Amino acid sequence: MAGSSAERIGYLTRVQSFSACHRLHSVHLSDEENKEVYGKCNNPNGHGHNYKVEVTVRGKIDGVTGMVMNLTDLKQCIEDVIMTPLDHKNLDKDVPYFANVVSTTENLAVYIWDNMVKVTPPNLLYEIKIHETDKNIITYRGE
Ligand SMILES: Nc1nc2c(c(=O)[nH]1)N=C([C@H](O)[C@H](O)COP(=O)(O)OP(=O)(O)OP(=O)(O)O)CN2
Ligand SMILES: [Zn+2]
């Protein structure tokens, strides 16, 4: 069979955008402290983002299928974990996880990781990278 018998490791990424609104507000801070810490992002009426998420899996390139993971399956995982619960939602009001967790991009990456790891094959999920804006990007690898 063509190719070396040595194990080849691939990093496979699928990108998905979604729109959502949020407000940065911590239940552990007073209203004044929230204004102090989050500034304009604490506006009671919230604001929106067109988030771009990069989901990366890392694993052996299968010698028969030539795949780390079927992108069709990864696409479905993204639909279930990201699009259905988060797209066109108010993160703080529509997503129970964020009722008492500040909807920073860091915490959003943790949320997506914790749910994505449940639906992807064991030990394959490598990284969640979220572009909150063109300038603000968070990378999380489950640590
Ligand atoms: N560590 C974090 N800090 C901030 C986060 C975050 O998720 N993690 N989020 C925000 C706000 O959500 C805000 O929407 C982004 O703030 P800002 O940087 O002002 O947005 P822009 O980059 O688009 O604005 P520029 O003026 O172009 O820099 C704030 N902090
Ligand atoms: Zn924001």
Automatic annotation (TrEMBL):
Pathway: Cofactor biosynthesis; tetrahydrobiopterin biosynthesis; tetrahydrobiopterin from 7,8-dihydroneopterin triphosphate: step 1/3. GO terms for molecular function: 6-pyruvoyltetrahydropterin synthase activity; metal ion binding. One of its GO terms (biological process) is tetrahydrobiopterin biosynthetic process. PROSITE patterns: PTPS_1 (PS00987), PTPS_2 (PS00988). The keyword Metal-binding applies. The keyword Metal-binding applies. Its EC number is 4.2.3.12. Keywords: Lyase, Metal-binding, Tetrahydrobiopterin biosynthesis, Zinc. One of its GO terms (cellular component) is mitochondrion. Its cofactor is Zn(2+). InterPro entries: 6-PTP_synth/QueD (IPR007115), 6-PTP_synth/QueD_sf (IPR038418), PTPS_Cys_AS (IPR022470), PTPS_His_AS (IPR022469). Involved in the biosynthesis of tetrahydrobiopterin, an essential cofactor of aromatic amino acid hydroxylases. Catalyzes the transformation of 7,8-dihydroneopterin triphosphate into 6-pyruvoyl tetrahydropterin. Belongs to the PTPS family. This is 6-pyruvoyl tetrahydrobiopterin synthase. The gene is PTS.
